[in-house]
Design brief:
This protein is mainly alpha-helical. Helix content is 76%, strand content 4%. It has a 3-stranded mixed sheet. Strand 1 and strand 2 form a beta hairpin. The radius of gyration is 43 Å and the shape is rod-shaped. The model has no long low-confidence stretch (mean pLDDT 93).
Length: 238
């Protein structure tokens, strides 16, 4: 059938390449990769938050440690004077005892705050370690998925390139005028402008073809259109 048979083979190849492109576009790996990317981004944010909170809590602990030490030294100085024998008046002695008691209360409260701060540091260290672990695990998963996905995508793109090369070869064998008609009809018939004769019926619309048209299909150079749908016809087996 020459050019008409080439058009039918071209149609099948273009339907095939369209299908492969749809499969490539709809690969699950795209959605999975995006989802895991978001998880990794969330993990990084969690690590950053934990690091920031931990640094802040460590500074607070250090400030409380320094405050405890300051109060301790001040209390020692007050006690040293109390028991030095240099304080003569009862009023001054009472004032110094009250001050020492206040310092001891302040020290006790600050030590409680320090203990809570140290516990918070421990909890944040655990949180940070967990966040870093999650980030490492998901980062490895993302890298593995990217490698696997790239291989899968490459296979599809290689297949598309092979089909395109076949398509280009067939298109070069068909006359420009016939190719233009085919391309215009391809849009109209949703990629299927060429139909086979199956028995006595058009494979496109399933309507019976007249004997006159069937006889014309015996001429390799004849352009035969289905009387019902208007598709180009090729003999069965082409």
């Amino acid at each position: 059938m020459g050019e008409i048979a080439d058009l039918y083979r071209l149609q099948q190849l273009e339907l095939n390449i369209d299908s492969v492109r749809r499969e490539l576009k709809g690969l699950p790996v795209y959605g999975q990769f995006k989802k895991l990317q978001n998880e990794v981004a969330d993990n990084r944010e969690a690590v950053s938050r934990a690091e920031s909170k931990l640094a802040e809590q460590r500074k607070r602990s250090r400030r409380l440690e320094m405050e405890v030490e300051r109060i301790h030294q001040e209390s020692k100085a007050v006690q040293a004077r109390l028991y030095s024998g240099t304080v003569k008046s009862a009023k001054e002695l009472e004032q110094m005892e009250n001050k020492n008691k206040a310092l001891l209360r302040e020290k006790s409260k600050t030590e409680e705050d320090l203990l809570l701060a140290m516990e918070a540091v421990e909890e944040l260290e655990k949180t940070l370690a967990e966040a870093r672990g999650n980030l490492e695990i998901n980062s490895h998963r993302l890298s593995d998925m990217q490698r696997q996905g790239n291989r899968e995508i490459k296979n599809y793109k290689d297949r598309i390139a092979e089909l395109q090369a076949e398509i280009d070869g067939l298109r070069s064998r068909v006359s420009p005028s016939l190719l233009a008609e085919y391309d215009a009809m391809r849009t109209r018939f949703h990629g299927r402008p060429v139909a086979r004769l199956e028995g006595e019926n058009c494979s496109g619309c399933r309507v019976s073809i007249s004997s006159n048209l069937r006889n014309r299909l015996c001429n390799p150079s004849a352009l035969v259109h289905c009387e019902n749908c208007g598709r180009l016809l090729v003999p069965q087996g082409s």
